[in-house]
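Why run this: before we spend reagent on co-expression, it is cheaper to look at a predicted model of the complex and decide which construct boundaries make sense. The entries below are exactly what would go into the expression plan.
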Amino acid sequence: SQKIEQNSEALNIQEGKTATLTCNYTNYSPAYLQWYRQDPGRGPVFLLLIRENEKEKRKERLKVTFDTTLKQSLFHITASQPADSATYLCALHTGGFKTIFGAGTRLFVKA
Amino acid sequence: DTGVSQDPRHKITKRGQNVTFRCDPISEHNRLYWYRQTLGQGPEFLTYFQNEAQLEKSRLLSDRFSAERPKGSFSTLEIQRTEQGDSAMYLCASSPGQGETYSPLHFGNGTRLTVT
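The model came back. C-alpha cells follow.
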C-alpha cells in the first residue's frame, strides 16, 4: 500500500541546534516533494519544494534533501529558534491533481 | 495577495443537520482544493476544481458531500445529514497553473466542524 511516514513522536531540541525531520514513503514515485509548516488552528503554509531530479534545496535556514533511491527526504532547520516550533508536514505530488500529505512531526524548540 | 479565506471559522451542528462552508481562493488562482484534517493527521484530499470544473473526487467524499465552484471563483462544500464522524477541520487551498504544471498549495485557515 502507499504510505508516507513521518516521526509521530515530537522532536524536542535546544535553541541554536539543527532540527532534522524525516519523511519516508513507499509505493509512490513523486515528481515533487514538499514541506509545509502548520501552527495549531491554522492551515499549512508552504516552505520548500524539491523535484525528483534534485538532490538538495536550500532557503535561508532551511534545507531539504531528496533521495529517490531510499525514498526519503530530510528536512533541516539550522540555528533553530523557539518560533520554529510547529508541526511540519511532508507532501508528495505524483501527477494528476492530488497532493498527498504525511501526518506531520511536531517540533518543539526550547529557549 | 489577500490569501485564501474560509467562512465560518467554526461551526457546531447537531447530527443530521446540513452545513455549508465557503472558500474564497486567491483571486488569480484557477485551481481549488478541499481537504479534511482530523487531530494528529495530515490533510486528506477530498476534491479538486480547475476553474469551475470538478475534476477529481476522493472516495472519502460520500454522497452526503457535495462541492461546487460556480463561475470558477469561490467554492462551497456542503455536508448533508451530518454524522459525528464528519467532525474535522475542513481546509481549502488554491494554486495557480495550467495543464500539467504543478504549483504548491496556498491554504486557508480552515473551518472547524463539530457535530454533536
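The mean pLDDT of chain A is 94. The longest strand of chain A covers residues 19-26. Bring this page to Monday's planning discussion.
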